[in-house]
């Protein structure tokens, strides 16, 4: 059966061609504004239409397969999709009781970032807009109906490698007849795909942008993040300036700190140089350990294991960045107890 969750009002009207056009708006509002999950509850629709919808269409196509909650209040859910694929999504709570949903855009990922557990899955497939939105709604249901304040596309997958479905997700969630979420409450985290940033500038300039920098040294970044090969730092910087010119939004540069790899004495200065001309925050993220991660190979250093930095080095690195005039936010290690922290999401792809 076809899901109506991923359709805009005019598209729902197109599916129901024999019905008045306003039915599409009614159904869209029931799903995304009134959070109804059964066509039978749509009481302002004629009973024959409700029965037809129940027979021929559906709203949700996935279900929660596993729920894990960390001591810090972080909740991770594993979803089983209609084809049996498995993905993960995370609900994060901050000290002010603000709730953020971390959503996935792909099953697996093709980017090959050496410090990220999702990369070990390889790329399996893109999610459609409905499968992305379902994560948000199922997280809310798992949290007892708690409304989610913000969304970060920072889960499994590279969002810009699934741009069309990502864009449709944004259009649905920000639609005035639905959830009507402000674009500024949505953040896209990318490994640094220049083409995706350029498209975002044209289509959703108010959406917030976070970029995994990880290293401002091209040789090291290329080893840690193969995206550097086709999207080198100078091109990335140009794209970020373009984004900032269009929307004026502050950019987040994410820096996963790895012991003895990107925490050298020269690294803060290289970050400062890359950040020149950008209005940005530096999100400093101590690497979150994940099992089975292979070592990296760096010139002059050879093979190095992935390790989290000790607290002293982390404190030194933060202070060096601040001395250089950068705004630094130390990312707290939320969700580590259930492998829900940054870089720890991964599944077997399909349930055995």
If you had to describe this structure to a student in words, what would you say it looks like?
The active site is at 88 (proton acceptor), 342 (s-methylcysteine intermediate). One of its GO terms (molecular function) is tRNA binding. Specifically methylates position 2 of adenine 2503 in 23S rRNA and position 2 of adenine 37 in tRNAs. The protein is α/β, with parallel strands linked by helices and 352 residues long. It has 2 domains: 2-58, Orthogonal Bundle (DNA polymerase, domain 1), CATH 1.10.150; 63-338, Aldolase class I (TIM Barrel, Alpha-Beta Barrel), CATH 3.20.20.70. Helices cover 30% and strands 21% of the residues. The chain is built from 10 helices and 16 strands. It has helices at residues 9-15, 22-32, 47-56, 129-142, 163-173, 194-203, 218-224, 233-247, 267-275, 311-323, and strands at residues 2-3, 57-58, 63-69, 75-80, 86-93, 99-102, 106-108, 123-126, 150-153, 186-190, 208-212, 251-257, 280-286, 296-298, 302-304, 327-330. The strands form 4 sheets. The protein has a 10-stranded mixed beta sheet, covered by helices on one side. Strand 14 and strand 15 (302-304) form a beta hairpin. The two termini are 24 Å apart. The model has no long low-confidence stretch (mean pLDDT 92).
């Amino acid at each position: 059966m076809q899901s109506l969750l991923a359709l805009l009002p005019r598209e729902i009207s197109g599916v129901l061609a024999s019905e008045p056009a306003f039915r599409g708006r009614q159904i869209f509002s029931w799903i995304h504004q009134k959070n109804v999950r059964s066509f039978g509850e749509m009481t302002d629709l004629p009973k024959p239409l409700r029965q037809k919808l129940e027979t021929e269409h559906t709203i949700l196509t996935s279900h929660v397969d596993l729920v894990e909650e960390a001591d810090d209040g972080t909740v991770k859910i594993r979803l089983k999709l209609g084809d049996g694929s498995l993905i993960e999504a995370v609900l994060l709570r901050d000290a002010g009781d603000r709730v953020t949903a971390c959503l996935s855009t792909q099953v697996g990922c093709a980017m090959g970032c050496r410090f990220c557990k999702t990369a070990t899955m390889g790329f399996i497939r893109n999610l459609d807009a409905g499968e992305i939105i379902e994560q948000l709604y199922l997280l809310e249901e798992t949290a007892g109906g708690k409304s989610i304040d913000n969304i970060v596309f920072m889960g499994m997958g590279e969002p810009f490698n699934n741009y069309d479905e990502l864009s449709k997700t944004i259009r649905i969630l920000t639609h005035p007849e639905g959830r009507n979420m402000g674009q500024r409450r949505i953040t896209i985290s990318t490994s640094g795909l220049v083409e995706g940033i350029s498209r975002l500038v044209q289509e959703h300039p108010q959406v917030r942008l976070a970029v995994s920098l990880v290293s401002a040294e091209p040789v090291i970044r290329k080893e840690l993040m193969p995206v550097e090969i086709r999207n080198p730092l100078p091109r990335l910087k140009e794209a970020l300036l373009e984004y900032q010119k269009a929307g004026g939004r502050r950019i987040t540069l994410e820096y996963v700190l790895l012991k003895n790899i990107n925490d050298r004495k020269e690294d803060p200065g290289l970050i400062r140089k890359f950040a020149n001309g950008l209005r940005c925050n530096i999100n400093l993220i101590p690497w979150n350990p994940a099992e089975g991660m292979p070592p990296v190979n760096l010139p002059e250093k050879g093979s190095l294991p992935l390790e989290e930095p000790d607290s002293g080095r982390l404190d030194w690195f933060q202070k060096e960045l601040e001395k250089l005039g950068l705004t630094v936010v130390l990312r707290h290690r939320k969700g580590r107890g259930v492998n829900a922290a940054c870089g720890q999401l991964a599944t077997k792809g399909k349930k055995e």
